[in-house]
Amino acid sequence: MTRFRYFLTLPLLILGLNATMANEPLVEVLDNGIRLVVAENHVAPVAALRVYVNTGSIHEAEYMGSGISHIFEHLVSGGTTKNRTEAEIGEILDRLGGASNAYTTRDHTAYYLTTDAGKIGTAIDLMADWMINCTFPDNEVQRELGVVMEELYKGREEPMRILHQTFAETMWQLHPARYPVIGYEPLVRKLTRDDFVNYYNRMYVPNNMVVACVGDFKAAEVMQMLRDAFGPMERRTIEPVVLPEEPPQLGQKVRFIEKEGLGAAYFNIGFHTVALQHPDLYALDVMSYVLSRGASSRLVKSLREEKRLVNSIYSYSATPSYGAGSFVVHAVAPDAQYEEALTAIFEELYRMREGLITDTELERAKQQKIADDILGSQTAEDAAAELGLNLLTTGNVAFNAYYLEGIQKVTAEDVRRVARKYLFDGNSTIVALRPETAGAVEEQQAAAREEAAPVRKLVLDNGMTVLIKRNPNVPLVNLQAVFLGGVRTEPEGKAGLSNLTASTMLRGTTSRTREEIDTLFDSIGGRLSPSSGNNSLGLACEVLAKDFDTALDVVSDILQNASFPENEFTTVHRNVLSALGRLDDDWQSQISRLFREAYFTDHPYQYTTLGTSQSVEKLTPADTKAYYNGFIVPERCVFTIFGDIDEEAAMARVKEAFGGFTRAGESMPELAPPAPPREDQRIGHATSRQISALYMGYPGTTIDNQEDYYPLIVLDSVLSGIGFPGGRLHGALRGGDKDLVYLVHAWNFFGLEPGFFGIMAASSPDKMETVEEIILNIMGEIRESPVGEEELSKAKTICVTMEHLSRQTNGEMALQSALDELYGLGYDHSRQYEEKINAVTAEDLLRVARKYLTNYVMVRTGPNQQAAAE
Predict the structure, then answer these.
(1) Residue 413: how many CB atoms within 10 A of its CB?
(2) Which residues does residue 467 pair with via DSSP β-bridges, in sequence order?
(3) Closest C-alpha to 388, from 115, 26, 808, 36
(4) CA angle 270, 276, 277 (to 5 degrees)
(5) What is the pLDDT of residues 45-57, one digit of tens each?
(6) pLDDT digits over 457-483, tens only?
(7) What confidence score (pLDDT) does residue 167 get?
(8) How confident is the model over 131-154, as pLDDT tens digits?
(9) Phi, psi (rounded to 5 degrees) for 867
(10) Over 90: is that where the pLDDT of 109 sits?
(11) Residues 6+ apart with CB under 8 A from 13
């Protein structure tokens, strides 16, 4: 067999992939036309496999608008083949760890699977079987058509989906980019099994595919596995899909949609631009970064921070390889301020046409691009996606290097030139989704594995715990500071105070303004963000290794000298109130809020981290300052430095930075544990949405109850998988020929006080009674009978695999170590995770099921839910 083989030849000093790969990627093109790319990544013992098929919603020809590519993804991923039944494939996926999924876009369909590196051969064999041997049994076709219909049904209630679909249909008149990837309901209903077989034979051919594999293995060995698995595929002729050229737009297009119950106006402003191959690509991307990348960017600074007209705003330049390029600004604003915000956005956009951007803005955008490239390539999954998409869309795995070279060549004049060329009224499209009573929203809503070093622990004289870990595989440093605090420490009547404090403390110190902090981090391409949860609060920071000293200086200043300026508090306060006003726009956020209020009736956990509109409305700058002084204290802090550092130098710097950090603080509140439900409780909330949702919770336990902690995690895996859909609930409600739910999942809420074991499901209203009955039956079965050894083994594999996948980046590892240390478990507690999970027995599961899965609180939302409360 003749194979074409080539390697990267460009220097990869600015390519993020180089940071995590021991060797340059290996690429081959087999005789049948399939393109293979393999690279080693020795950061974690995992391997990521991705198959890209060069077909999406724009390639559907006579099926245009039916979403056949998307439904195809549902059928192929996990579907029956000539060699395996659906059940057998499910068993294999469980053994691989369950981290498998797929997605469809306008121009490609992707299938991906991440597992332990030693199992990559099985993963490749399974993926090849899907690509070559799918049989499309009629029961699976009908089931997945039902699932997609449920997804379409649910999409009618999602503001962002409504906005973006309407925007595409308005922006493009002829190009198939105007059609939704999911398709239109009448056309979906017409699809038959014969249509899927025809589409499979036409598009799923090797000369229309790219396979990418990255992981902790030897590239040459995995490349041979790919040759053996995909080499037998037969090359076939592909009829070219000729896409119509979108004609020039003749005048501004504006479209408004009204929707009942919205808490804000959501809107897009778009301009037609160019395809990926056009040289204007680079200047358009730089312009987008100057406009909206970071808090000191023009749109964010002007509209969100200074004029306070929007709650959120960002821009992007989309330049796909198939054409239909666009430059888009998306914003969310209080409806009463929509018109003013729209005018202000156009003023900022058109200002790009008049004067030149500054040298500082230009260099900052370029630095941000380099940093984002590195930050976005830390995991094996990231690297496989980057290599595969580069090869699919450009034919060159080294495209990122060319791209960043092009970015570095952009001048201020180039940015002004593209602004003048594309940003004008006649080329613009405005689409807005607004509350049904448009304009009546009150202003109250304004608002070679080089093994990383072990963790080293240091306790400063002031009681602050410092954890340091050298990881030289990626030229990044992650800083985390976590403090005991969060929802459980908020005084009565002040729910949301921890979150408001964490956000506001980043917006100025006694020596630095918010703008100076934002500008600094934007200039180095760094990320600085607050955190506030149920049991803790703090901040996280990630920068290039060369900027560690600078970042540490700012972070230590924030933790010791935050000033809480009144004007900055006002902006954060307004944004939080606005977010609270929009909370019920999304059904999942709404039912989550309602459940916590119903379950934790006598404990601060009843509130989300945002708090409530009533409590947040009353909070003042003095409240945040007092909470900061009471809880941002050294003896209740764990500070982590994970990344490409010199450990000794880092220790010396942290001692210097925090040597004078002293603060008495407040005593931690003594809380009684939440009272578990003594009987089953069912609560209904009627909504206008045509989707029904269920959220139920059984008594849970605490973070430090290690006897029950691990069995409860495995129990979660048995019932619904970990992170990815699976388990008994998914099998009963979506497996086989069933299409009862759009979503179902279970999880553990662990706290410093007992939490809950939760289950969420969503379906069409006519199916919810059946869904509830099935869930309750399954929960009864898990209490009555032991789990079989095979099912138990699969569940443990899923737990261990997902744990590996969640500990790949510096930030993930640092946060886990910090929280474990903060909660008294010890920073290296997670090292025993695999051992503890594998020690769980069927008797352990039966014991915790009988202990915790007793009485429940259930909340249901949807039309005609009053009856659920009876």
Answers:
(1) 10
(2) 457, 640
(3) 36
(4) 135
(5) 999 999 999 999 9
(6) 999 999 999 999 999 888 899 999 999
(7) 96
(8) 999 999 998 899 888 888 888 877
(9) -65, -25
(10) yes
(11) none
DSSP assignment string, 449-515: --PPPPPEEEE-TTS-EEEEEE-TTSSEEEEEEEEE-SGGGPPTT-TTHHHHHHHHTTSBBSS-BHH
Q: What DSSP string describes 309-326? A: --SEEEEEEE--TTS--E
Answer whether 60's CB lies under 8 Å from 66's CB. yes
**For residues 620-631, average pLDDT:** 96
- Taking only the tens place, the pLDDT of each residue in 219-239 is 999 999 999 999 999 999 888
- Which candidate, 413, 382, 449, places its Cα nearest to that of 50? 382
How far is 268 from 161, CA to CA, in rounded Å?
12
* Cα–Cα distance, 52 to 392 (Å, whole number): 7
Buried b (16+ CB within 10 A) or exposed e, 319-329: bbbbbbbbbbb
What is the DSSP code (8-state) at residue 41?
B
Place of tokens 């099921």: 849
- Count Cβ atoms within 10 A of the Cβ of residue 354 and give its class: 0-12 exposed, 13-18 middle, 19 or more buried: exposed
Q: d(Cα 356, Cα 417) in Å, to the nearest integer? A: 10
Q: How far apart are CA 745 and CA 45, in angstroms?
A: 27
The pLDDT of residue 775? 96
Bigger pLDDT: 439 vs 599: 599
Please give the C-alpha separations between residue 160 and each of 259, 267, 710, in angstroms, as whole numbers: 12, 9, 38
Token pair belonging to 80:
């029956």
In the numeric block, the tokens 């006598």 are attached to 602
| C-alpha–C-alpha distance, residues 727 and 743, integer Å | 13
d(CA 675, CA 79): 45
Distance of CA 715 to the CA centre of its chain: 25
Token digits of residue 839: 């020690």
DSSP code per residue over 141-152: HHHHHHHHHHHH
Euclidean distance between CA atoms 394 and 386, whole angstroms: 12
Q: Which residues contact 625 (CB under 8 A, 6 or more apart)?
A: 564
Q: Is 700 helix (H, G, I), strand (E, B) or coil?
A: coil
